[in-house]
Amino acid sequence: MSHFLKESDVDVVAVCDVYEKALNQAKEKTGGKAQGYGDYRQLLASKDVDAVLIATPDHWHAQMAIDGCNAGKAVYCEKPLTWSWEEGHKIVDAAKKNKTVFQVGLQQRSGTHYAEAKREFVDSGKLGKIAYVRTYWHGNGYHLRKPNFTEQPAGLDWKAWLGSAKSRPFNAHQFYNWRAYLDFGGGQITDLFTHWIDVVHWYLGDDLPVAATAAGGVYYYKDGRDAPDTISIQLEYPKQWMSTFDATLVPGARGAAIEFMGTGGHLYIDRGGYRFTPPMMRGQAPGEPIVGKAAMALETEHVRNFVACVKSKKTPNSDVVSGHRSALASNLGKIAYLQKKRVTFDPAVEKNYVLS
């Protein structure tokens, strides 16, 4: 929400949260101008609202996104678009039926340096045949928030927070660190891998994996979580290439990037910039690397793209179908991890879920 508040042509007129303290904090960020709601359906009923931002635990994304489409609002939904890949079909159907301007919070698609690297090294053919893509994202503080209470605080509607998840007594650690629990999120798999595999899909134009394998576990943080703190995933694709994702949350682990390995060179890219390195031939001096840097904050570029599309009714950079397929890929990795075996997927089931 903070990025929308910075835009001069955006008025944040309403906010919603099932925890009264968080709701009041959100209202304060708007200077007290926004109407507060405890039920998102009441917010969707407001005629003052043109577009909605969904930034909730993952298990709420699908229902809120569908309801937003059906209410005639433009929708910006944080990644991953879905908690399970099957939910994506319902969201795509709702968005197409209502002709919804729909942006997924995969902000790399609006990054100037990401588009530049794609054009200069992938689209141009300079990278050559790409057979292997390595992605990794080590370390993240989302799972280490310290609850300042143990009992359910006043003003929190725990039942509403749980939504479609299995009923259970209030748990402060699950409330504060929901991404560490598979009932509400997918840990690093869906929270972080979704970002990177979306870039890979975008660059290679091949966005439906046919198989996934995974290994990992809760190796370090023995605090009740069930989302792995260490994970390795391998995805295979129809056009004969594969992508891997490695991540660990253990202290000391750092680094988050994508590396494309091609017959024509090596492309490293992260949120700060890129570096292309020509292949080193035996007996020859190594070629000079080509580097580029980010022009501005990705979130700013992405929010501005969404706002422009709300006005023009054009398709945003991270549309509902590409967002669904990137969530599908990371969720396939999650399934492989849970089943402890190689799982396969038939891309034919997605033939009806494309942008019209």
How much strand content do the residues show? Answer: 15-25%
Query: Judging from the principal axes of the Cα atoms, what is the shape?
Result: globular
Distance between the termini: 30 Å
CATH class of the largest domain: Alpha Beta
What is the assigned CATH homologous superfamily of the largest domain? Answer: Dihydrodipicolinate Reductase, domain 2
CATH topology of the largest domain: Dihydrodipicolinate Reductase, domain 2
Along the chain, the helix and strand elements come as HEHEHEHEHEHEHHHHEEEEEEEHHE
The total count of helices amounts to 12
Can you summarize this structure?
This protein has 356 residues and is of the alpha/beta class. 32% of the residues lie in helices and 20% in strands. Helix 4 runs parallel beside helix 5 (87-98), helix 5 runs antiparallel to helix 12 (320-339) and helix 10 (193-204) packs across helix 12.
